[in-house]
Amino acid sequence: MKKIRKRLFGGLSLILAGSLVLSACSGNSNNPGNEQTNSTGTQTPEVTGEALPAFGEQPLEFSYYMNYDWASPSGYGTNDAVTKWLKEEKKMNWTEIGSNGNAKQKFGTMVASDTLPDVIALDPNTPEFENLVKNKKIVPLDAYYDKYPNLKDLIDPDTMEMMRASDGHVYGMPSWFGSSRNENQMASFGWIVNRKIYAELGKPKLETFDDLYAYLKLVKDKYPDIIPMQDPSEMMIYGGYGDLRWSDSLKEVPVYVNFKTKAIESIFTDPAFKKMKEMTNKLYQEGLVSQDFLTQSGEQATEKLNSGRIAVQTANSITSIGRAANNILQAKDPAAGYDFIPYLYADGVDPAAVAPIGFGKLGWNQTVITTSAKEPERIFQFFDWWASAEGQRVSTYGPPGILWDTFDENGAPIDNEKSKTMTMEEKANLKLGWNPLGSWQFHKIGAARVKQNPEKAEWDVVASLFYGKFVKTNNDQFNGIMNIDSKSKLGIDFARMKQIVKDYDAKLVFARDQAEFDSVFKQYEDALNASGYMDLIAHETEVWKKNREKMGL
């Protein structure tokens, strides 16, 4: 399932610093007196004591692009209460740019034509990120961090240091970042079941992969119009083989992160990898998962889930998509919806060793401001405000005056009288959850909200806190592990390996019997090994080692 992000907004009347003159994309300027250059040649913004108007007092408009295949425009200002409020009340217009299902191509076209949007959300420590830095296409944010209060206060000092690019500057704003001060760990990976179907089938035991297989067959037999399982989500299946197998190790070119030996090894040395692939093949061949899961769009998958046509779903963003689907279905039928369940695992595996998702203070991606932006400081002002407690509150619970008017001592909103009389359908139609840059304040406020009234707590917050109890791996130790120069030999090999992975992953799904599967699996291993796979492992091992030393692990 595609990643779908959450929500946020906040409002401090900030006294913010003033004018900023950026270099042109070429690195030249007709007004050199208004810029500063450090020893690396990178132009840094000049921040004066002149105060900017508080966010929302003057119109602000900028373009925004997420560098992911799954990212598509969400209908800013038209579909949900939060962005309508931002557009109408806060005078902010957010122009969305989609990837058209091919982020690499879209990004490359924008770079080549020098038509970058004002803001880009992308993975840090990647060739794309580093190229933006090298070519001076994004704005150094050091001065803004020093001048504006929220983000700098929320980001731990050691995290800020790890965010620095190769030239020593900080260019990004992390999204969904954590903190050593966060006492309410949350996680978004998980499993959900269709509540009505599960109840009607007698709520059979659903703990292991064998239980799952039996349940999916039962669903297929009893409910011919229902899709037993949406997407096999191999990251979740892999994690179910225990030993703290880390789901992110399957990204792009899979490797085996062996926490016992403290080594990164070939994924083909891990028996769990083949078992995972065999399980995917079996579920597909027997019609127990969506037959178009390899090609369906995020919108198509969401429609199936929101209509209640899915019996089981697993995803890395299950808490957000699960909440939306649950609210939509419950608005029509109070007995309908989805329930989250504990992580499933293979027979013989200790459930305590199942932790497919990690935590991290660096977040899952970063948002950068490009040199195309006309008002970069005001854009930063918005995101800084958005990351605050007030921002997280509005993102999750809507603007004040709809569901709440005041909040408690922990920052959690208190239901107003209007909220108490609204129907589930009316609340679902608010479509709360828009959040382009989440901070750990979301966790703090969410946990406080649950304590207010556990029975009426938001579905996704309860689910996120539940899965957060299983988190054990610190993802920051893998920061930059796949940052490879695309023009180097390893970078060229890496691109070839990613295509090999894509091709053979599909071939394994379509293998008609065990003999064909085993043959394709061996070809898969041979193809990667012939394309520099061990050199990639050596590179990732070295980066991992340096990160662990830096973090004292």
Automatic annotation (TrEMBL):
Residue ranges, annotated region (Disordered): 28-47
InterPro entries referenced in this protein's UniProt entry, alphabetically: Bact_solute-bd_prot1, SBP
Signal peptide from the UniProt entry: 1-24
Biased composition (Polar residues): 28-46
Keyword Glycoprotein annotated: no
Keyword list, A-Z: Signal
Record keyword Iron present: no
Pfam families xref list: SBP_bac_1
PANTHER family reported in the protein's UniProt record: ABC TRANSPORTER SOLUTE BINDING PROTEIN-SUGAR TRANSPORT, ARABINOSE-BINDING PROTEIN-RELATED
Name the UniProt record assigns to this protein: Aldouronate transport system substrate-binding protein
